[in-house]
Write a structure and sequence with these properties.
Blueprint (H helix, E strand, L loop, with lengths): L5 E3 L11 H4 L6 E3 L34 H16 L3 H64 L6 H6 L6
Antiparallel strand pairs: 1-2
Organism: Stichopus japonicus (Sea cucumber)
GO molecular function, one term: calcium ion binding
Keywords: Calcium, Chaperone, Endoplasmic reticulum, Lectin, Metal-binding, Repeat, Signal, Zinc
Length: 167
């Protein structure tokens, strides 16, 4: 039941022997609320003018230009305003970019090689640390065996001499 369907008894009083420390905070007993009619929901009425979900009408736009044509013309305008022509842009690219291309490529290759070496060193260091941890675990187990059973209890040499039944 929800809190709205129940209401406290109005004339209920706290008992005289009620101890808040022992019994907790006193709450009056609850009864069903006669005025509660359930969860409220708004009324739904039909809309006589409703025509269904709206769909955007598709109409032709005579001013629409193809995107590729627009992009190409924009690039051409930028080139013309900046360099004068496509040929001028190509010659300027050769003058500026071709000169630095080889040096930049060598520098990038050097940086990549340094990063690769650094990664390999970190991986080797991590593997070495993981290997050390495993060795320490083995040593701890051996120490436990020695303490629990004594070193004389485990004679590996005697076991090799004794015949064993294989499964």
């Amino acid at each position: 039941m929800t809190s709205q369907s129940l209401s406290p008894i109005a004339d209920a009083e706290k008992p005289e022997d009620w101890d808040d420390d022992m019994d907790g905070e006193w709450e009056p007993p609850m009864i069903n609320n006669p005025e509660y009619q359930g969860e409220w929901k708004p009324k739904q009425i039909d809309n006589p003018e409703y025509k269904g979900k709206w769909v955007h009408p598709m109409i032709d736009n005579p001013d629409y230009e193809a995107t590729i044509v627009y992009i190409n013309s924009t690039i051409q305008l930028l080139l013309d305003s900046t360099y004068g022509s496509v040929e001028d842009a190509e010659t300027q690219a050769k003058e500026l970019w071709e000169v630095t291309k080889e040096g930049e490529k060598k520098m990038k290759d050097k940086q990549d090689e340094e990063e690769r070496k650094k990664r390999e060193e970190e991986e080797a260091k991590r593997k070495e640390e993981e290997g050390d941890d495993e060795d320490e675990d083995d040593e701890d187990f051996e120490d436990y065996e020695d303490e629990a059973f004594g070193e004389d209890d485990f004679d590996d040499e005697d076991e090799e001499d004794e015949p064993h039944d294989e499964l």
